[in-house]
Amino acid sequence: MNEPGKFAYIEAKGKAPAIPFSRYLPIYDAGTAVAWLERRATKGSWVLEPIGASPATILEMAKAGYQVLVAVNNPIIAFELTMLAQAHKGSEFQNALQELSAQKKGDERLGPHLRELYKTRCNTCGREVTADCFLWRKGETAPYGKKYHCPSCGDEGEHPATEEDVEALKPFMRSDPLHRSRALERLPSGTRAARVNAEEVINLYPPRPLYTIFTLLNKMEGMDLSPPKRALLDALLLSALDAGNTLWPAEENTDRPRVLNTPAEYIEWNLWQVLESASSVWNRQEKPILITHWPELPERQGICLYQGRMRDLLHQKPDLQPESIVCVLPRPNQAFWSLATLWASWMWGKENTANFKNVLERQRFDWYWHANALQSALAPAARLVKKESPVFCLVPEPVPGFISAALEACCASNLQLAGIGWKDESHALQTEWTIQTQSRESKKVNLHRILRESIHNCLNEAGEPARYLKLIAAANASLAVDEAFPSSIQQLTYESVNEIHGEISKTFVDRKFLRRMEATAQDPESGFWWLAQPENCQTALADRIETELLNWLQKENSIPEELVQRTMNSRFPGFLTPPAELLQHCLLSYADFDPLEKTWKLKKNERVDLRKQDVQEIQSQLKQLAAAMSLTVEGENPQVWTLMTAAYRLFVSSSATTGGILKTPIENEECETIFLFPGSRSALLRYKLDRDPYLRERTSQRWHFLKFRTLRELARRTDMSRDLWDLLIDSDPISLEDATQLSMFL
Q: Is residue 11 within 8 Å of residue 569, measured between CB atoms?
């Protein structure tokens, strides 16, 4: 079996700014794409982004000095990218909104008319106030609550809706069928299924928001607006279109809408307030970035936007040959794709959604479909760039099906996996590929062997249990390297994909090969997985990371904070990326943080010579204690205390590493193992035990953790006996907090 290459996981630089529609777009770690380009591409070279699902990534690459050719089939993302690149000022949006607000609606101006739609009364003082939002339960015809701030009495927060609030909805209820009919007419025609799906999407808009949206649309269409000013109002209206649907849960959560399911309780936002505040997310760029539309190319760093499918761009046979590909792969998103079709049709006409209207034809997007969709963009992209060019694909919010679909699509696009970087389940899987010079031929491979060896190697290399998703990523990476995935889209069939996934499932149910630890459900993603026979495994990753970081601290004495994660990632690449929390516990155990210099400095008492003295002192005190209890002592580290047979094995360590001890054979199963360590390792040791169920299992029986300071107190006692020793060795337990001495020692 061939193993995939490993590279150091690229850490984010700062936090990516919130941009419009962030809750639908792929999560992106700021700086990742640029950091990769700085390693693999020439500054100022052309970079191809064949899907364009992440405007933040595209803007970042252009801002860093690269020329980005991007194909975007989604008209909403294409518009968003253009507007963000132009870096309009907030005042421009506000001036456009004021012009819209001044339009007449009957005998009143539009702005005051729309504000009036959200009037309510303060439940405390009875004054008229503007509601920030109304709260609804799914399926009900009236809101159950509202939120507001009363400027008169200061009352704010959530309050029950009143009969007056319910009465205010009746005019919208009466006109609602007319607005829904007009909303449907503005969508592209299609099959009966597409019409049913379109009606379902429109039904995500309650009567009042739908009235507000179409009132705004009608007024904007009647205004004599210059294209730039119309674009400003379109941006604000898009924010209102997003805020107007029922996909906003009343309870705060981190769920990102991917399907058209209204939550049990949802928010109806005040859309005029949304318009007034929307400019804050549309002017995130400080300086404009040059953006042109294909075939016009920017003369310097900037973005060339092709609004359409990647394969259509390839058919135009462009002379341009980018040097690299960077792609943030999106997950299937029925909600955003359907809403984008709706919004684009309502705002710019049916003809502008011609390439995107088939979204309404399909409302189920399985992983097999998604692999084909990704391949339809990646394959023509690979044919457009230079041969053997590097390709960087990010797989954000990874789940098993997404990882498989992404790697299947890449392999079916004539890409060869060159390296992989894994951090954890909440961060993107980073993959690097090269474009093959020749199309590869499919060959019969031993799926059973590849999968078992890849999972075994991943666990063996880490020396500790892993979550299901990490093992799935490792297995898929090995399948890609060993050319087990179909080599063309024609061979990427349901049958071929199901055969691979079926073999993966068989591997995880083989209890002679794998065991599941701490599972809370039958779902294989629950709990941790470990080898059924873990002989000859590497020392646990947590111990190796601790040792490496300590050696680094002792060599340099001071480490800049910004270098810690990046440097440790380079020393533990691929699937061994050190968890940030583990590094933090290690640093707190051995070093002090200097907030002014932003560095970690080795604690004075952590010098090698001082810790060596501590170990020698503890070993001496142990011998004295053994003599006081009439026990025979053999060895230095470990010391073995015996009476008739071996009673205790005592290991003295200045670190929190236990891997070597666990590999030391025990001749007498009745022997107790005692691990002695500095109290400053307590939190680190507790953290290791909490994160590693196998370590916890191995140390749960006949194991004791004894701090140096506790041992010193015990050594001072004049009444020490074997029974008292057995009682007190567990009297000062390890914890994540700094332990304090018990009163009996004072």
A: yes
φ, ψ at 266 (rounded to 5°): -135, 170
β-partners of residue 120 are 129
Per-residue pLDDT reduced to its tens digit, 179-219: 999 999 998 877 788 888 899 999 999 999 999 999 999 99
Does 1 or 729 have the greater pLDDT score? 729
Residue 666 CB partners (closer than 8 Å, separation 6+): 649, 673
Alpha-carbon dihedral 493, 496, 501, 506, rounded to 10 degrees: 150
Tell the burial category of 611 from Cβ atoms under 10 Å away from its Cβ (0-12, 13-18, 19+).
middle
Measured distance CA(232)–CA(94) in Å, rounded: 9
Helix 561-571, helix 580-590: angle, nearest 10: 120
For every residue of 167-185, DSSP letters joined together read HTTHHHHHHHHHHHHHHHH
CA gap 326, 403 in Å, rounded: 17
Count the alpha carbons within 13 Å of 275 in the hemisphere toward its beta carbon.
24
What pLDDT band is residue 10 in, cutting at 50, 70 and 90?
A: very high
- Going by their DSSP bridges, the two strands 632-634 and 591-594 should be labelled as unpaired
CATH class of 541-606: mainly alpha
- Predicted local confidence at residue 740, as pLDDT: 38
Q: 472, 486, 485, 382: which is closest to 422 by C-alpha?
A: 472
- The token pair at 295 is 């075939």
Amino acid in position 515: R
Alpha carbons 411 and 414: distance in angstroms, whole number: 6
Beta pairing partners, 130: 119
| pLDDT tens profile 100-117 | 999 999 889 999 999 999
Q: Where are the domains of the chain?
A: 1-87+283-439, 108-278, 541-606, 615-745
Contact between 479 and 485 under an 8 Å Cβ cutoff? The reply is yes
Adjacent-strand bridge partners of 467: 528
**What's the angle, vertex CA 177, arms to CA 171 and CA 178, rounded to 5?**
90
Q: Any idea what DSSP says for residue 460?
A: H
- Number of Cβ within 10 Å of residue 328's Cβ equals 26
Q: What is the pTM of this model?
A: 0.93
Which tokens in the block code for residue 245? 């649907």
Using CB atoms within 10 A of its CB, is residue 174 exposed (0-12), middle (13-18) or buried (19+)? exposed
Between CA 90 and CA 95, with CA 92 as vertex, the angle to 5 degrees is: 110
> Do the domains 1-87+283-439 and 541-606 sit in the same CATH topology, yes or no?
no
Max distance between CA atoms of the chain, in angstroms, equals 103
Radius of gyration of the chain, Cα coordinates, nearest whole angstrom = 32
In CATH terms, 1-87+283-439 corresponds, of 3.40.50.300, 3.90.215.10, 3.40.50.150, 1.10.10.10, to 3.40.50.150
State the DSSP code for 156.
E
- Interhelix angle 580-590/682-691, rounded to 10 degrees, is 160
State pLDDT tens for residues 341-388.
Answer: 999 999 998 777 766 767 777 767 899 999 999 999 999 999 999 888
